[in-house]
Write a structure and sequence with these properties.
Helix content: 40-55%
Shape: globular
Strand order of the largest sheet: 1-2-3-4-5-6-7-8
Number of strands: 8
Bound molecules: phosphoenolpyruvate
Number of helices: 11
Length: 249
């Protein structure tokens, strides 16, 4: 049985004071129940996150990594550095990285592989733009994004990874995919993996991301192939994030 995971991607938001309030609020009421909880703060807050969450049931991760272990890469952070801060997860291929920072499918595949090799669990984000959906290319786009990673890391790579389906048109827009639209793509993703390995596909967590909130979470996360959510905006306020966790508990 796959457990629901509610993961908060804080993007480039926050301050030391906000992290304190948010994590103390989550610690008081989230985690340890039927729902797994994780947070993805910006790099500078990983140390604070570790010291507040260590020993709790709430996990944490980073929003990106550089695939190189170390070297002359000013401004970059490697997988080994993330491990030093107790990260369990790392996001790879978030649509903002793909579009604003021109990360290609190959860049994303390299990051995924580097995360696995270091012992981190990558959360691979995939999803189509509105234009791609409207031209009927959703499955082709998702397939291409998955294939880039599968051809490098193999199906075995997904035994210790998560996939997040995040339609770009639903991220931060207030437009959520309907549960049916999301379920269709999640089933497509799971079937793609199942054609290579039934067991890995059956155990793989596939999260939905795109304007998830306390009102739509239960309807999304009770669909057969939706195993939780990657939550942006609604993860920045304790009450909003807890509403999502509690809606599905
Ligand atoms: C995200 O940042 O991954 C995301 C899904 O954001 P939002 O929930 O704000 O749409």
């Amino acid at each position: 049985m796959r457990r629901i995971l509610v993961a908060g991607n804080w993007k480039m938001h926050g301050s030391g004071a906000m992290v304190q309030v948010l994590l103390e609020g989550l610690l008081a009421r989230a985690g340890g129940g039927e729902v797994d909880v994780a947070v993805f703060p910006p790099y500078p807050y990983l140390a604070q996150t570790r010291s507040l969450l260590r020993g709790s049931s709430i996990s944490w991760g980073a929003q990106n990594l550089n695939p190189v272990a170390q070297g002359a890469h000013t401004g970059e952070v490697s997988a080994g550095m993330l491990l030093d801060f107790g990260c369990r997860y790392v996001l790879v291929g978030h649509s903002e990285r793909r579009t604003l920072y021109a990360e290609s499918d190959q860049d994303v595949a390299d990051r995924f592989q580097a995360a696995l090799e270091a012992g981190l669990e990558p959360v691979l984000c995939v999803g189509e733009t509105l234009e791609e959906r409207e031209s009927g290319d959703t499955e082709a786009v998702v397939e291409r994004q998955l294939e880039a990673v599968l051809s490098q890391s193999g199906i075995e790579g997904f035994a210790r990874a998560i996939v997040a389906y995040e339609p770009v048109w639903a991220i931060g827009t207030g437009k959520t995919a309907t549960p049916e639209q999301a379920q269709d793509v999640h089933a497509f993703i799971r079937n793609k993996f199942a054609s290579q390995d039934d067991i890995i596909a059956g155990q793989l967590r596939i999260l939905y991301g795109g304007s998830v909130n306390g009102s739509n979470a239960a309807d999304l996360f009770t669909r057969e192939d939706i195993d939780g959510g990657l939550v942006g905006g609604a993860s920045l306020k304790v009450e909003d994030f807890l509403a999502i966790c509690e809606a599905v508990a």
